[in-house]
Amino acid sequence: MQYAYRDRKNRKRDFRRLWITRINAEVRNLGYTYSKFIAGLNNKGIELDRKMLSELAIQDKATFEKVVKTAID
What we know:
single chain
């Protein structure tokens, strides 16, 4: 019980770290870097959060690849 408050905060951080790791792995498989991909998303105005990008990277690789190509190009 004493760690519940702290661990609720840590869980958010841990999931964000997991999502970023997954996205980074898939983006690198396509030959790009995570930072350039995220910068491209921001520049193009694509508003997908890291959770959704992570799910796309795992479950729908074709769509994720299109998002990456759109963001980078």
